[in-house]
Amino acid sequence: MKIKQNNSPSPSPGQKGVIVAHHGIAVDILFASGERRKVKVKRRAGHVVGDNVAVQEQRLTRLPRKTQLCRRDSRGSVRIIGANLDVLGVVISHLPLPTPGYIDQAIVAAREADLTPILVINKKDLEGSEPFIAKIRNTYTGIVDIFAVSSSTGEGLDELTLFLGQGFRSFFVGITGVGKSSLLNAICPTLDLQIGQLYEAGKRGCNTTTVSTLHSLPGGGELVDTPGFNEFGLVDISTEDLAGYFPGFEDAMESRCRFRDCRHRTEPGCAVLQLVESKKITRERYATYLAIFDQLEAGEARFKTRR
Ligand SMILES: Nc1nc2c(ncn2[C@@H]2O[C@H](COP(=O)(O)OP(=O)(O)OP(=O)(O)O)[C@@H](O)[C@H]2O)c(=O)[nH]1
Ligand SMILES: [Zn+2]
C-alpha cells in the first residue's frame, strides 16, 4: 500500500524510538539511547513492528511511515504486517511447497508497497530440493535476487547475510514450516527463538511463532520475524495494476499494449499475449497471472462468503 505523505506533520513531543516487538496488548520500544521499554497499546491501535514512535510517559504517538506492507488474512480482514521495510524476503522450500500463487502474490505485494522482493529457498540440504531450486531459478532469475540456503548446514547464508548487511530492514514471509525462524537463528546466532515450540493457546493452526519481533543483525541490517501464515491475500491492488507488478511481465510492460487499460486477456495488440505466443512468457506463468487476476476480481465477494 503506497503511503500518502502528509506534508505538514505536527512535531511529536516525547522520546523517539522504534517498535521492536508486538505482543498484542503491549509493544517493546527501543529508544535511540539504547533503552528498551514496554508500553501498553490498544489491541486494534494498528501499531506494527518497525513503526517509529514518540513516547511521552505511557502515551505513544506513531510517526509517519515510509512504507507499509499489508495482507488480507483468510477471513478477509486487512492486516498491516510491517512498517518502514526495505526488503521482503519470500522464504520458500520444497517441503512444504508454497501454496499456488504464493510467491507471485508476495512479489506483487512487495512491489506495490515499494519493497524489494527477494526469494530465499531454504532446506537446500534436503533431498529433492535440487529440481525445486532449478525450477525457481528458471522462473525468477533476472527478475528478483534468489538465495538458495540451508538454515541447518549454513550453506548459502554468507551471500544472504552480505545482501542484508547493506543496511536493509527486511521482513521474511513464508508459510508455516519453511524455516523462517530457523533461518533467522542461523543468520543471527545470538537469538534464541524457540523453534517449533511456542504456540498460541486456543488458536487453530498452532503457528510456532507468537510475537512479531525486529532484530539487528551482526552483519548489518535488520530482520523481522512474524507468525507464519499460509495465505498472502492481496490488498488494494486493482486488476489493472496487477500486470505491472507481476514477475516476468516486465518486458511486456515496457513494450506496451495497444490499450492503456489492457487487462491482457483477449485484447488486440496486447504485449503480454504476444510474448505468450512467442513463448517468451510460458503458458504456466500466464495461467498464474490469470488465476491471481480472477482472485482479485472475485475480491470482496470471496472473502465475505468465507468464514
Ligand atoms: N533439513 C532442514 N530442515 C530445516 C531447515 N530449516 C528449518 N528446518 C526445519 O523445518 C521445521 C520448521 O522450521 P521453523 O523455523 O519452525 O519454521 P517457520 O517457518 O519459522 O515456522 P512458523 O514459525 O510456524 O512460521 C523445523 O523442524 C526445522 O528444524 C533446513 O535448512 N534444513
Ligand atoms: Zn495487454
From TrEMBL:
Q: Name one GO cellular component term.
A: cytoplasm
Q: Does the keyword Phosphoprotein apply?
A: no
Q: How is the cofactor bound?
A: Binds 1 zinc ion per subunit.
Residues annotated as binding GTP: N122, K123, K124, D125, G174, I175, T176, G177, V178, G179, K180, S181, S182
Sequence positions that bind Zn(2+): C257, C262, H264, C270
CP-type G domain: residues covered: 74-232
Record's keyword annotation contains Repeat: no
| Gene Ontology MF annotations | GTP binding; GTPase activity; metal ion binding; rRNA binding
> Residue ranges of the EngC GTPase domain?
83-230
Which CDD domains did the record assign? YjeQ_EngC
Q: Where in the cell is it found?
A: Cytoplasm
Which BP terms from GO are recorded?
A: ribosomal small subunit biogenesis
Q: Which cofactor does it need?
A: Zn(2+)
Q: Which Gene3D superfamilies match?
A: P-loop containing nucleotide triphosphate hydrolases, Probable gtpase engc, domain 3
Enzyme class comes to: hydrolase
**What coarse category fits the chief subcellular location reported for this protein?**
cytoplasm
Superkingdom, natural source:
Bacteria
Q: Name one Pfam family in it.
A: RsgA_GTPase
Report the EC code(s) recorded for this entry. 3.6.1.-
Similarity remark: Belongs to the TRAFAC class YlqF/YawG GTPase family. RsgA subfamily.
Q: What is this protein called?
A: Small ribosomal subunit biogenesis GTPase RsgA
The organism's lineage is: Bacteria, Pseudomonadati, Thermodesulfobacteriota, Desulfobacteria, Desulfobacterales
Gene that encodes it: rdgA
